[in-house]
Amino acid sequence: MKKVNPRRGSLQFWPRVRAKKETAQVRHWAASKEAKPLGFAGYKVGMTHVMYSDNEKTSMTKGQEISAPVTVIECPPLKIAGIRFYKETDEGLKVVGDVLSEKLDKELSKTISLPKKVSKKIEDYTDYDFVNILVYTQPKLTGMSKKKPELFELAIGGTRDEQLNFAKEKLGQEITLNDAFTEGQIVDIHAVTRGKGFQGPVKRFGVKVRDHKSEKTVRGPGSLGGWKGHGHFMWRNPLAGKMGYHLRTEYNKWIMRISDKPEDVNPKGGFINFGLVKNNYLLVKGSIAGPKKRLITLTNATRLTKNLPSEAPSIEYVSQESKQG
pLDDT tens-digit profile of 113-153? Predict the structure, then answer.
């Protein structure tokens, strides 16, 4: 009889498909009365640890200095490429059209196919319900060899008119990390996990390794299913296959610091497989999905937990020891 590790779980996510692209798709945005971006994006750098004064009200170590692992995310400014108009219909949201900026970087126009329904005038659109902004990254500002920018959408808070005014004012300009988030804020992380390739059922589903006297195999499920009248193996069977590279959302991650001083976090010799941080960065408590250099999308929290403090802690020490082993 097969035994499945509940921590891995064969049916926690279904369909368990690989992501279509590395840029995470956000399906829901938390509402906000303030006209500002409801999200931002940055590149995963690596992990380190900090010592900070515990400011959680119900914590047994309140007021004491404790250690915590943190993930560093480098967030160079994003540029607004255009405005996208949406209309709510009986069949769901429909894109009415787009207005693009006249000041687009050459890297963007050469590497990304821009929207087809484009108008040069914002005044051409009157029948819409809300607007989003089309933004693109600037990886050339980082130490990575990557040059191709990512193009994606960000929602804006406020009323319809406030959203449009914000988008018109910022069209073609840069927005920074401080325009979207503050220290101590609780956010959701949207990212594509690390791809692990073709793996067996023991690693893929946590199936227990069988006794050494078992027939045929020891690193396989004890049963391939019941009645075979359906002519194929049921999808519930834990079999070998591709693992990882899934779009996942982690709720309620705590921003412990937002800073424009990379020298305060760069370790000796730089971060492994990344290098040195050169732009604004943030420290998120705990680990997050994805390998280094992957684009991470952060949004306002949609499932707030009351136990987490809304104020940033006082960080006394950030480890800058060499990560080279």
Answer: 777 666 668 888 889 999 999 999 999 999 898 888 999 99
CB 197 within 8 A of CB 231: no
69 beta partners: 49
Q: Is the dihedral of CA 26, 30, 36, 38 positive or negative?
A: negative
At 205-228, the pLDDT tens digits run 999 999 999 988 999 998 888 776
Asked if the model's pLDDT at residue 51 lies above 70, the reply is yes
Domain 21-31+39-75+181-208+241-325: which CATH number of 3.40.50.620, 2.40.30.10, 1.10.10.60, 2.60.120.10 = 2.40.30.10
Give yes or no for residue 25 having a pLDDT over 50: yes
Give the gyration radius of the chain's Cα atoms.
23
What local confidence, expressed as pLDDT, does residue 60 receive?
Answer: 93
310's tokens:
């809304």
Q: Is the whole-model pTM more than 0.70?
A: yes
Contact 256, 283 (CB under 8 A): yes
Distance separating alpha carbons of residues 138 and 206, to the nearest angstrom: 40
From residue 38, how far is each of 52, 169, 186, 246, 307 by CA, in Å?
28, 17, 12, 23, 22
Q: Which two tokens stand for residue 59?
A: 């914590």
- C-alpha–C-alpha distance, residues 29 and 93, integer Å: 14
State the CB neighbour count (10 A cutoff) for residue 159: 11
- Residue 273 corresponds to which tokens in the numbers above? 């497989």
Cβ proximity of 107 and 137 under 8 Å: no
Question: Given its phi and psi angles, is residue 252 left (phi above 0), alpha (psi -120 to 50 degrees) or beta?
Answer: left
Query: From CA 180, how far away is CA 255, in angstroms rounded?
Result: 12
Is 268 a residue whose pLDDT tops 80? yes
